[in-house]
Structure formats: structure tokens, C-alpha cells
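note to self: the first set is below, dont mix up w the second
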Amino acid sequence: MTNQVYYRRWRPQCLADLVGQEPVARTLKQAILRKRIAHAYLFCGPRGTGKTSTARIMAKAVNCLNPQDGEPCNACRLCMAVNEGRALDLVEIDAASNRGIDEIRSIREKVNYAPAEGAYKVYVLDEAHMLTDAAADALLKTLEEPPGHVIFILATTEPHKLPGTIVSRCQRYDFHRITPAAMAERLTQICQAEGIVADPAALHALARNASGSLRDAENLLERAVTSLGTPLGLEQVRLLLGLASEERVRALVGHVLHGRVPQALTLLNAMATEGLDLRQLHRQMVDELRELLLLKSGAPEMVPQAEEVLREQSALITQVPLERLLHTMRLMGQVNFRNDTPTALPLELALIEAAQGEASRDSSASTAARPAAVGTAAAPPPMARRPAASAPPAQQAARRPVAAARPQPPAVPAPSPLPPAPAPSPQTSVATAQASSDPAVRLEQEWDGILKALNRQKWRRFNLGAMLRNCRLRRLEGNTLTLEFTHRSLMERMEEEMDNPESRRNVLDAITAALGITTPLNLAFTAPNGPESTDKPRQSPLVQAALGMGGKILEEAEERHE
């Protein structure tokens, strides 16, 4: 027994020992007391919350020779057999490795045999969602009407993957994540029984790092005791887990919220140089921002911090608007460490954008609101046209100005036979150049806005906003737009995406809305290492109508006349 790990040695032995699952324990206890035992149960919830332990407690309680107020005595021979793993009437099956129809047929044959010792034979199917469809169908009849001496208990972390026919035949009990306070209390009991001296703050840090799983918290405690010994302090636990101190995390968040970019980057890289786990640092920052958001929203009772910490947090956000907190929280939530990035670059980008994003947007808004200076023509801001690129065609037509609804004059007007007008002033020439209505010029000016609008849309296969960034040359000749890609493979991907009528319509709508024209455009694609690909076969009105109704061109071939 002394060589067992903590989570096995301190596994709950009765319903009263379950941590954080009081509603489940109370209901099962009343069912045992009143002899209202169901033939099938479904225990579902996150890992490490006590599903399998509860199933074993149920197996002891229904067969105990000396039950005590709905609880097993843990002293009779049947309870001892379950505790020692040698009970014949408790059959535990790992459905992840025994998921086929043959294993279920074996269970159907054996359930008819009477229990060896107790009153009930209990079958526990762990990870029940891993059963195949055929195995689940084979289990249905037995699960619905088993012999009177059989109890089925299905445990799963993903109940949504179970067929509805299985779920409807069971009594469902949901196990919830355990709160850090409840886990810290349980860790304190274990330390007292094991003779371990530990700082309560250290145990609380272990509990918070376990993400609601008591088994993970007990494993972390054993790892800390094995590595660091006793007494166990907070700084030692932080060093072991790669955690930063709460004061430094709060200081880093404060630099970001108040726009102090150099200080934020300096502190972030100092913590990264010390070897702190960047994933853990990101998680700590998100937790800190959440607590600040709750305080700013008027819910301080939901923040599990001491009074002095609450005062520090309240002082930190006194001058910070709620919108700034929300903006920073969204950016931090988008940080992606899935590619196992060894540097702090994802966090650095998020911190810089969070610290400067609001200021840059405010300055842009004030610049747009200022009237243009004398002799200077202010071009319309790109942001005013970006929503139209991603809106449906009907909305775009409604949003276009009246002037843009008329066809634009040719790029090079014919010489006028009238006498030459007086030479315009330099200021007028500058304004005329800035307000040029040449579609080819406006295409270059609005290209970045077009890419951002396309990047926000969901396409069939490829992200066109990202693909079009590799378009090195754009030529608008008449009503044909030629896009030259850096490689033939990119051109072929663009052609494949353009076979989808909806994708083609969205691209053309984004371009025409940005240029302010209503003339339909044709797209042509080319690459330096491949022949030019055009849309000429698609210019036929019949082909366009078929594409608009969801059709797809399977093959394009020219007729050969002999």
C-alpha cells in the first residue's frame, strides 16, 4: 500500500469522501437507502472528477453485508474484496480497448449467471463513448432489460458521442469540475495524513493548476513532494510548475492596459529568459484579466482573492475603460501555442496590439473626423468601404453612393476641342490627383482593404485573403482584371476556389465595391511558370446563369473544326 501513488491511495471509499460532487453523492445515497436502485447508470463529466470511484462505491454499497446509512462499511469481506481489486461481482471493462461487438456479445452471455457472492453483479464500462455502433446496438436490449441481479454503470468523458438510445436507457449523473478551494482542502487533508508540511498558498497554486481534476492535483502534490521535499513553499511550487508570481503577472497586465509597450516587452522577455513556461504565463494573464473584468463589471464576490489583492486590482483598473479590458481579453484569448513556438513571439504580438490597438483606432477616428485642410483633398478612409466587401450583394447595392452607380469615364479622356481652361492652382492639382477615379489607380490604393475584407470570410477550401497576398501584379484592362501569382500552384488553387459560384461572386463583389464600379468584371489568372488562365469560356450568359444556380464546370474544351 505504501508504494501506491497518492490518487490511488487516497481514492474515495464512500460517498461522503467524494470531493465537489455533493448532489450526485446525496442522490445515490437516498437511492440506496430506499432500495430504488436502477438497472443502468450513466456517469459523465471531465477526467479526474470521481466517476470510476463512484462506480466502485456503488458496487460496494449494493453488496455490503453491513451497510451504514446508505454507505458501505468498508470492513466486511465483500467491501474488502472490492477495495483490494479481487471482487468477482465487480467487472470493470475498458470500452476503449474492448469496443467491438464480440466483447459485447460475451457480456450478453455472462449476465445471465448469478452473482458469485453478493446480491448484484456490477458491470462498469469505462470510456463508454468508444463503443462501435454495432457494439452499442448489441448492448441495447441487455441494457434496457437486464436480469434483476445485474447493474450497468457507464462512465464517459464525452456523453455527446453516445447514441441517444443508450443515454435514454440510463439514469444520467453529471460530474462537474472541482473548485480550487475544494481541491486545496482535500490536499490539506492528504498532507496532514502523510506528515507533509506545506504552505496553504502552495497547495492553492497546485489546485488552480489542476484545471478541476482532483487526480491531477494529487499527482502534482506527489511530484512536488518527491522533487522538493518538505516543507513545501509557494516559491518552490512556482519554480516546479514554471509559474510567475502573481505580482509580476499583475504588473505585466497593468503595463498592457495602460499602453506601456517598452515596459511590457521588457518584463515579458525577462520572465521568458528565466525559463518560465510561456503557456502557463499566458494562462495566468488570462486569469488575471478575467478577474479584472469581473471587478470592472461589478462582481467582486466572484473573484477568489484576498482583500489586499482586490484593492490592488481595483486600483489598477480605475482609469481603464471596460472596452479596453474587453479588447485586451479578446486578443489574449486568440494567442495560439499549438505549434509549440519556442519563443515569446505570440505573446509579444498580442501585447503590442493590445497596448497600441485602442490608441491607434482612436487616432484614426480623430483624423477622419477632422476637416480637410485648405488645398488638400482627404481621400475616403478604407474602413468606410470594408464592410461592403463582405456584405451580401443586395446590401452592397443599397450602400453604394449614387455617384458610384454610374459607369466611370475612360481612364484617358479624349482631347477637348474647347479652348484650354485657365491653369489650375497647385492645390487643385493635388486634390484632383488624390481624388482620381481611375479604377486601375484605385485598385492599387484599395488592394490592402480588399485583402482584409476577403480574409474575414469563410471560403470553401482556401483562404483567398492569404492567397491573394502572393499576387505580385494586378492589371485592370477594360472589364478584365488579370492577377499574376508568384507560382503556378497558387494560381491553380485560386482557379479551384473560383469554380465555386459563391466564392467567385464574393470576390467580384469585394473588388467592384472597393473600386466603386458597377460594370461586371472578368478574372484572368497567370503565373511566371505556367500559361495564362482566363475566364473567357465563362463569359457566356448561359454559363453565367448556370453557375449562379449552383452549377459547376466539369470540363472546358474548344471545338475543333475540320
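second set (the one i keep forgetting abt)
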Amino acid sequence: MHGLMQDQPLLISSLIDFAERHHGDGEIVSRRVEGDIHRYTWADVAGRAKQAARALDTLALARGARVATLAWNGYRHLELYFAVSGSGRVLHTLNPRLHPDQVVWIANHAEDEVLCFDMTFLPIVQAIHSRCPGIKRYVALCDSAKLPTDSGVPNLVAYEDWIGSQPKSYTWPKLDENTASSMCYTSGTTGNPKAALYSHRSTLLHAYAAALPDVMCISARDAVLPVVPMFHVNAWGIPYSAALTGCKLVFPGPALDGKSVYELLEAEGVTYSAGVPTVWQMLLGHMKAGNLKFSTLKRTVIGGSACPPAMIASFRDDFGVEVLHAWGMTEMSPLGTLCTLKNKHTALPEAEQMKLRLKQGRAIFGVDMKIVGDNGEELPWDGKTYGDLLVKGPWVIGSYFKGEGGDPLVDGWFPTGDVATIDPEGFMQITDRSKDVIKSGGEWISSIDIENIAMAHPAVAMAACIGMKHPKWDERPIVVVVKRPGAEVDADTLKGFYDGKIAKWQIPDDVVFVDAIPLGATGKMLKTRLRELLKDYQLPTTV
């Protein structure tokens, strides 16, 4: 027997329709590439998204055609989020931080037919267009006055001209909710990048889950500034959850330095933000140097890589902001866990609460997880035993676009490549990436623990722990450190800083000081690149 409810598909177009109808006067604020601040409303987003959908229709793009973007977080990019998917095409957010050769490979693999880009990225477009024969139309996200006459890019039009002549009325097509809606290529795989292809259904379920009180807790009472880029797993789904709740959205555009982010947070009364640790480092550095405080910011979600304990403590103790640790992957749309405390934890001493906050958190409804050993057996949730982390759920990948890499699933579960523990309360903690974990004398050492301790030293700006080959112990850890400007610390002092914090055999054998640690396109440390740079390094002979 079937239920007798209305059968309405879960579609991304319904989100913008809802935001327009019920939160039409809600604000969208953007720092533009042009440098000024742009303001309008959810009703304006809806009208212009419909114009953009009509403009796509004039190109006679088939359902499922890929429309790419090379763009910062801003209002025009937001319009494309709804116009492309809502009209039945697939939004493909390209990462502008990749090398042009990688952008070419990805655009051709995705079979992109339209590329919309911020003028910041015109040099990238100029470098790649001759190698992307499938792209029929280039759209610069600006008005015609900002469009150069000698760009050399074929079939180029200004966005405002492209959509400006189109009516603001549009009937969104009724699609199957399992229709593809957007795609993101992951930087976390070996070999060529692989694409996660999201559906309307998976995107809406993720948007609902992300907005829940025990997750991002986004509501119409919030002003949200997503620092995480819209080209990085759809800004963790925030644009969709924002439309679902009608919250105020504040976009930082290309200005992600500490001063610019702080000024926007304060000027727009932002209550909630989200981003990776590297951006928050710049923000906290700017605030501490100027003895500044937050007047409205209450909480921030930090993910992408493990948040150092010192950063969580600084946000809480120095600025009164709650840090919510998050974990996920491109293959998970991306949210998998978020670290919010349970009711019984609120009465714990602050030190005990901090132990929980340092973990990546509890599973969100819709995501199941388990840890397994080398032979695939499920391991206990005791907070001590660690194993390979596997996940499944309605917004977790089933296979990669075009079947790249074969079937990624193991008995219906997706292997994340992370090594983790899960405690009896269900709090998961990443101890390492499986490719980064260090095995010394048959025992495992967590590089994340080594890095977190180093980051707690006042002279350390950034730290990365890697394993180096050792004739007796197989591998031994070293920590690669970038000092804070003007700070001084030597290797012996920093090694001594580990005393009493971890077992002696886990203390790194050496400290290597560098000017910078290589970062990937999403702000994560590139340990593969770091190992290449240190390929001639020799461990101290006294070890």
C-alpha cells in the first residue's frame, strides 16, 4: 500500500521559488570583483536566475549539458547555481586555483559547453580556450563596460548583456528528482581528478540536513558569510541551505585577507561563517595585531582539514566565538559529521568539552559510518581503536562520473581514505589520511596530533608532519614548520615542547623550518609535494 501524499519531486528550483515567495526581501550582499559592495534581495536573485535560465535556453543546450563557472563567491555566481540546475543543466564549478593544464583536462572531461567567469580569471580563460573545443560560449560575469575589446576569447559576451534582454518570468521544468544537478571534481584522489555528480534529490536532502540545529543551525535570523569557496563542493551546500531558510547571505568575493573578511563580518552583522583553517589564521592574526573584537559573530564551522586546538581556544577565549568542527568530502556533498555537543555534555568542565570539540563530530542523519580493520572487519566504537573510515547515505557518491576509477564502493560503503576512531557517544575523530599515517616500529603515529601540538606553540604559524624512511623503525616523524613573522624558535626548543604531551617515542625526530608549506587548491597542505621537496633530507644520525 502506498501513502496518499502529493508526489512532488525535490528540485533545486523549488528552493529559489520558496526564497522568493517567503523571504523575498532577505538581503544578499556581495563584495564584487570590481571592488564595491553590491546589495539586493532573494526576490532579485530569483528574477535574474530566471533570466539566466532563459539565456541558457537560447543556446539550445540539451538537458544535462554542463555549464562551467570560474568564479568567486558572489551574487552572479549564486544566480547561476539556480539558473543552471533549475533549467535542467548541470552546474560545473571549476577550481581557478588549479594549474591551467588541469583546468583544460577537467573542462574537456566534463564536456563543458558554456564557461561563465569572473574577470579576475580572464587570464586563465585566455590560456585555455584554444584547448577546450567543446565550449561554445564564454560569459564574463560583468557588464559590457568592463569587457575588454581585445580579449582574444571567442564567443565572449558580458553577463549583464547576456541575461539583460530576457524576461524575468520563467517556468522551471518538472524534472525527475534524480536528475543530475551539479558536479565537482575532487582533488583528494590519486591519478586524474574524478567528478562527483550530484542530483537534485541529494542536494535538497543535504540542504535540509545542513540547516538542522545539530549541524550548521542556519535560520532566517542569521547573516551567513561563506568563506569556503562556491567552487569547493558548492560552498559546503550553504547557498542551498540559505535559500531553504531565507537567511541573509554575505559574499566576500576575491578579498579573503584577514582585514577584508573582518570588515565585512562587522559591517554586515554576520552571525555565522564557514571556512578552512588557513583563512581563519589570517583573520585571527589581523584581529590580534589590531586588538579587535567581534560584535555579532557567534559561531563558525571549520573544515577542510583538522582545526588546531589553539585556534578553537583562541576563537572561544579571545573572541567569544564557538567553533564547530566539521568533516566531509567532495564525494559526500560534502557534509558527513559536525561536532555539536549533546545535552549531557554541556555540564562537563571546559577541558572535557574541548576533548570532544577537537573531534570531527557526530554523524548527520542521512550519513552512516563505520571503521574497519585490514581484513574488513568492523571495529569497536571505543574511542581508541582506529581503522579505515567508511560511509554511506543518500548524498554519498555511488560512482564517479564516466565510471572513472571503477566501482569505488566496498559492499555498498564508500571508503573515505581517512583513518579514524569513533567513541561510544558516536563522535568520530580523524587520526590521519591513510596515505599520511606514519608507521614506526610497527606502531602508528598520528601526523595530526604532531601538527596540533606544534601549532599550539606561540612561534609557529603552520606545521606539517610527514614520515621519513628509517633503516630500523621503517618510518620516523619530522615536523615541518613555518614561523610566525618576527618569532624565533629552534628545533630543540620545539621538540622539548612535546614533552608530556605525547609518548616519547612519538615525538618528532627533527624540526625542519621552511618559508612556506605548499597548499593545494582547497587550502589543504600538500604533503606529497612536501615529500618531494624534502626527498634529499636525511634524518639525524643520532636517532
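remember for set 2: The longest helix spans residues 42-58.
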